[in-house]
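Progress report, Aim 2. The chain analyzed during this reporting quarter is listed below.
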Amino acid sequence: MFFLNMIFRSFSRQFKRRLLIAVTVCLSATVSVAMLGVVFDVGDKLNAELSTYGSNIIVQPKSDAVVSDLYGSGDSGTSSVTSTASGSSSDPTSFLKESDAKKIKTIFWAFNITNFAPELNIHADAGCSGTSQGSCKAANVPIVGTWFAKTLHMDSGESTVVGVDGMRSWWKVSGTWPKDGGEQAMAGSAVAAKLGLKIGDSVTLDKTIAASDGNGTERNRVKVKIVGIFDSGDSDDNAIYMPSIMAQTLANLPDSVDKIEVKALTTPDNDLARKASKNPNALTQDEWETWYCTAYPSSIAYQIEEVLPGAVAKQVRQVAALQGDVLNKTQAVMVLMTVLSLVAAAIAVANLMAASIGERGSELALLKAIGATDGAVSRLMLAETAVVALAGAIVGALLGSGVAQIVGHVVFGSGITMRPMVFVLVFVLLAVTILVASLSSIRAILGLKPAEVLHGR
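Predicted structure tokens for the chain:
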């Protein structure tokens, strides 16, 4: 009881200094809880944010992937029609089955697959439209047959909607998206200007294909209505997008696609993921299980290859590297801010405790003179500081949670999930910080000589 009375009496005698200690710890706890709360949740937030900018995994026929690797003829990070729109007019020669695409939603990490869209990239002769027929020339243009917002009914009984509508958030679209299965299309701004296309116009597409009897060639024709014009800011502006069934009909390639773009929520690569991406067979059993059961881009790509025969899935290196780089830098900045706030708190608390001991030198000397040990006096000072710091830490933790939510809504447009381990970690760090800050004060108490202090020396 005497010990507790001493603690609470010190608050009334040095109220301002105790309040300053509480405020210092409160501010440090606020910054630490907010920053660490964001650090532990920022991975998912950044993945969700960056995933709005397109696919991070590309699935191709195995033969195409081998050619790309050998000759560097393509990059899985390029847009849908980068190679075709840049001057090459060759069409793909190897394909995947479009009907197999929905198997992507059956892998171990199916719930991390947020969207995907198969594509058939071909070329066709497009005629001019409207009032521009006399001033423009028909041109051979890239055609992308794909899904826009296709509803898939899975064998499990679940339904999901997939397509480029949810994978091209940066497109500026005038009009509407085409309907899957309809005779509709949308044109890039560049090709629309070239052919004089406007929303509501119809465009005729002709393509030379192998004759049905196997002898010679013949011309195939489809007519589609332009329901939208988009501005992508890249080579997609040179292409016409239409439902996959229309492109397959035009090219006489039923149930065929040459690429599948996949958007997945992933964990940034680490050393294990990089090792596995080179050769999964080089992993030990424990490493393989850890890698397979973690949502790395390489493990998701591996699982996609398991369910799609003859396919090679590759992560888009630019997106994966950007996710890891941004995540590491963001976490480093926030951890640095946490460390600086703790250092500042340690310096402030150490100075306040030193000043407190200077003011209470006579009281502490008297305690030692009547029999109090150095340990007892040190415990008294630590207990006083601990009670004040605990009050400040609790208030700071509540404020930090609020600050984290503000950061989440301002930066990511959603709240931050506060994990219990954040509060535990902050309280442990603050306890260590207060203890370190108190060491100089404890040394001062140990060096206090009652006779000299009480005689004013």
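The longest helix spans residues 317-359. Confidence is low (pLDDT under 50) at residues 73-87. These observations will guide the mutagenesis work planned for the next reporting period.
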